[in-house]
Amino acid sequence: MNEIVMLSAAQLVAGFRQRTLSPVEVMCAVLDRITKLDPVVNAFCALDEEGAMSAAGEAERRWMRDEPCGPLDGVPVSVKDLVAVAGLPTRQGSRTASPDRESADAPAVARLRRAGAIPFGKTTTSEFGNKIVTDCPLTGATRNPWDTRLSPGGSSGGSAVAVALGMGPLSLATDGGGSIRIPACWSGVVGFKPTFALVPAGSAASWTALSTLGPITRTVRDAALMLDAMTCANSDWLPGTGRPSGYSSGLDDGVAGLRIAWRAAPDGVSVAPDIAERVGRAVDTFGMLGATVIQTDVAPMVDYYGDGRIHSVQWSVFFAQRVRHMEAADRTLLDPDLTALADVGARIDTATFVDALLARHALGVSMETFFEHYDLLVTPTFHCGPPPVPGLPGHLRNAPLLTAWCNQAGVPAISVPCGFAGDVPTGLQIIGRRGSDALVLRAARAYELARGDFPAPQGDLPLPGDTEIAP
């Protein structure tokens, strides 16, 4: 697909540099795309069209002078509605949140803006990011771009859907247990959860002590470009050279010589056969690219599943703390799923919570030992396909088994599309030790190059008549 809206951020910047594209042209195309498709999928909850077009005009004038302000100058970026963007409200999917506009950007948004990116809108989320589907009383349900009867996953579903459908090439999201990787998996895009705290979150976006900010994009290179902008000083970028820096450097160095551990289905996880087949085929690619692939048990993960309450205890307690100071009238406005989660957390005693924190520490230490023997670990991103809209089935209410442990261990993990399970994409998850973000991105890029371009969903999806989008 050669439409402007389906170009990557790297391709847009190249077009701006060559003056074959303009930031104004691109922003107009993105906003037009949102007008056409968002009524079907409900990926956005707020837009700043006037501010976006003004910023695009400024970027265009800089490019005309050959004076871009940064490596992403003029590139549109959406932001999950858990993260502050100046001039837009941060509602967090909640009817209890203030509708007032933010006076300042969150740190990661400010860094993207300094790199020239244009934050133009907020994407939908479950309330406070509480679950792995994207629906809430404030904004209703967000739909999968491949089949609108299904969920795209969550809680960063709006970001994944926006990127998949060409409603902006980049989105900044959050991941507290899989909230970047799961919707990326089910929407057919790239979702990267960096090492914990690598991307500055600010106090509001990191209140769970598990969530990490990261990119959702259509290509691994774009994810690296976003990470560069959010973690590297402006002095690392040399205007006019096109020279990659930070996480973009060495991205195409391949995986030859790497030791890659492969675990198809850890104990306690039943992976759907078609997903296992697609992921297994993707893993074979690494061997063909020169890596040594070893199928092995992962003892720390076995221990994690043996005590499956590590994540759920912390998650529920954090949400109990989030709502405990609310007035009774505000609590009646909450998503019933969130209320139930908070009620569970309120009944957990201090000793149980501390035990979960100690288990979290032990898991992190064990994974450090594991990665002394292997460079990377690969697994499926999720064990099954997405549920129907709306709601979250009971069998998916526990902590996501293949993703949440990465948040507990603080390690970087990326989901890359590796085919289809039925009519919906599925993903390969690549995991590294803490601080090995560049290596994880490099491996994902090697697989992406070998796989070839991943198809985009059609832009003419009908709205099914089963449920209304509005709450």
Keywords for this entry:
disordered C terminus, 471 residues, 16 helices, two-stranded antiparallel ribbon, Amidase signature (AS) enzymes, 13 strands, globular, alpha/beta
Short summary:
InterPro entries: Amidase, Amidase_CS, Amidase_dom, AS_sf. It contains 16 helices and 13 strands.
Major sheet attributes: 11 strands, mixed
Tally of distinct domains = 1
Lateral arrangement of strands in the main beta sheet: 1-3-2-6-8-7-12-13-11-9-10
CATH architecture identity: Alpha-Beta Complex
Rg over CA atoms: 21 Å
Strand content: 5-15%
Give a written overview of the molecule.
Keywords: Ligase. This is Aspartyl-tRNA(Asn)/glutamyl-tRNA(Gln) amidotransferase subunit A. GO terms for molecular function: asparaginyl-tRNA synthase (glutamine-hydrolyzing) activity; glutaminyl-tRNA synthase (glutamine-hydrolyzing) activity. With 471 residues, the protein is of the alpha/beta class. It has one domain: Amidase signature (AS) enzymes. The chain contains 16 helices and 13 strands. Strands 1-3-2-6-8-7-12-13-11-9-10 form an eleven-stranded mixed beta sheet. It has a two-stranded antiparallel sheet with strand order 4-5. A hairpin with a 3-residue loop joins β4 and β5. The C terminus is likely disordered.
